[in-house]
Amino acid sequence: MHNADRGIFDLRRGHPIRVSGSGTDVLAAAVEGLTPGQLDRLTVMTGGRPRLILTPHRASAMGWPQPLEEGWEGVALQPTGTVDPESLFVLASAPEGSDDASSAARLLEGAVLQRAGESEAAALELVRAGRLLPAVVTSSIPDPEPEAIASAVADGMLLDVDAAQAREVAEHPRLELAHVSEAPVPLADAPVTRFMLFREGNGIQEHVAVVIGEPSRWPDPVPVRLHSACLTGDLFGSLRCDCGDQLRRGVKMINDSGGGVLLYLAQEGRGIGLANKLRAYTMQHAGMDTIDSDCQLGFGADGRRYEAAVEMLEFLGIDRVRVLTNNPAKIDALRAGGIEVASREPVHGTVNPHNLRYLSTKADRGGHWLEELLAAEASRG
């Protein structure tokens, strides 16, 4: 495991890390879960003032469109007042215009917007890869390096992560999927089914190939669905989305077609993680759509990746598929990975008053093929 992979674990555990780059080296900690003691340690060890590092999407949501328009990798803000972890969290996550955001904004009065340095941007990528709120607090390490920092690194108490390596791991993860275990799991709509679990090389994420029917009897092309995990919809039947319907209908459609594979991918909340998904839900309850709420938190419209799906299909010896999806990005990703997509079949859920806006946003802003479903709903009045 690279130090960068370990850095993701440390940041998720609330531990600061040292990030070394071609410019200024920094101590960095995740804003999510930050405690007063950790923030104090950061500034005492460096003797400097903390900087808040945000994504361009978050800066745009706060009223600064320039970083997103110009493709900055990160945005650095130097709070002008005394900061505390709660205020930093509000600055990084509260909906713009809310009372909390307006109160915390006083810390940025007179602050100058700057591009994040290489090390700061790398730390930001690591927390995003760890599915934390995409925001870090950093403090520059002076030259010569303080003895306290050098000793902590030498003793293994502080992890030193190379900025270039961190960005490579975050942007181009080495999946190196390992087939870990498998077992027969008969399902209501697919009695002959086997679950095969795969673990990514860094040990962080696990994905499941739901193998339906006997592979020797599968049709050609093989029916395949890529399904991103949704705890609220898949397990609890949330009315906010159509994920649970798509999961169960996908299994039944594959079984009725003679068998195939449903790839259950650990990409909760379109890749932002469950904690951030629930934060986004709170904003959606107040009136935002799914894309705007994700952008308010500092994410893009859809952070999912499908390299794991390609690797699982390769392991199963599948190179020609009939994809059950409404999402053109999934087809593009499979083709980019060398999988032949012979055809597509839609998988529709049930429209209800709670998910109508969600589905409309998928179609209007996400490019999903849902015209037929939404037109049928509109015709019913």
From TrEMBL:
An example Gene Ontology biological process: riboflavin biosynthetic process
Record text on cofactor binding? Binds 1 zinc ion per subunit.
Q: Which UniProt keywords apply?
A: GTP-binding, Hydrolase, Metal-binding, Nucleotide-binding, Riboflavin biosynthesis, Zinc
Give the top-rank taxon of the lineage listed in the UniProt record for this protein.
Bacteria
Binding-site positions, Zn(2+): 230, 241, 243
Q: Where does this protein act, in terms of pathway?
A: Cofactor biosynthesis; riboflavin biosynthesis; 5-amino-6-(D-ribitylamino)uracil from GTP: step 1/4
* Cofactor(s) required for function per UniProt: Zn(2+)
Residues of the active site:
302 (proton acceptor), 304 (nucleophile)
Iron: present as a keyword of the record? no
Question: What Pfam families does the database record attribute to this sequence?
Answer: GTP_cyclohydro2
Q: Does the keyword GTP-binding apply?
A: yes
> What reaction gets catalysed by this protein?
GTP + 4 H2O = 2,5-diamino-6-hydroxy-4-(5-phosphoribosylamino)-pyrimidine + formate + 2 phosphate + 3 H(+)
Assigned EC number:
3.5.4.25
Query: One GO CC annotation, please?
Result: cytosol
Kindly give the Gene3D superfamilies that the UniProt entry links to this protein.
GTP cyclohydrolase II
Taking every annotated instance into account, which residue ranges of this chain make up the domain GTP cyclohydrolase II? 182-345
GO MF entries: GTP binding; GTP cyclohydrolase II activity; zinc ion binding
Task: Provide the residue positions that the database annotates as binding GTP.
Answer: 225-229, 246, 268-270, 290, 325, 330
The UniProt entry, under InterPro entries, shows:
GTP_cyclohydro_II, RibA, RibA-like_sf
Q: Which family does it belong to?
A: Belongs to the GTP cyclohydrolase II family.
Q: Outline what the protein does.
A: Catalyzes the conversion of GTP to 2,5-diamino-6-ribosylamino-4(3H)-pyrimidinone 5'-phosphate (DARP), formate and pyrophosphate.
HAMAP family per the UniProt record, alphabetical: RibA
Q: What is this protein called?
A: GTP cyclohydrolase-2
